[in-house]
Amino acid sequence: MHRILAPVDLDEKRALSQVRWIASLPDAERSVRVILVFVFERDELDDLPAAVKSGGSSRDVVTSVAVAYQYLEERDVDVTLVDRRFNPVEKIRQEVLKRDVQTIVLGGRKNPPVGRHSYGSVAQSLLLLTDVPIVITGRNVPPVDDSES
C-alpha cells in the first residue's frame, strides 16, 4: 500500500482538490492508504463544541474534513482521519515519520500574476523539513467526470 498523508485545513476547495488528485491515482481503491490530518489551531478551538474539545472528531464540525473524507470513502479509497492540536508543521512531520508516509499531498493557495506558485507557511516549512516527496495541488477544483470510472 502506498501511504499518502493529506493535511487539510479549513478551505473546502483545497481539501477537495487534494483528495480528487489522490483518488485519480491508478488503482487508488486497492493501492492507496490515505491519512487525512487536521490540526486544530488555538483560535479555532474557541468556536468548537465541547465534544470536539474533549476528543471528538474534526469530521463532525469541519466541513473541509467531512467533504474530503466522504469523497475518498465514496470511491472506496482507504482513509483514516487523524486530529491533532496546535503546531501544524511539527504535528504533520510527526505523522509522516510515525506512519512511514511515502507522499504528502498539500493544497496550494493561488498563482500570483508573475507565474510563481504561492505556498503557505506550512507547505514551505514541510518542503524544507521533510525528505518525503510533496505534491501540491491547485485550489481550483475541476468538475468531476465519474463516467470514466
UniProtKB/TrEMBL annotation:
CDD domains: USP-like. Pfam families: Usp (PF00582). Residues 1-136 form the UspA domain. It comes from the Archaea. This is Universal stress protein. It comes from Natrarchaeobius chitinivorans.
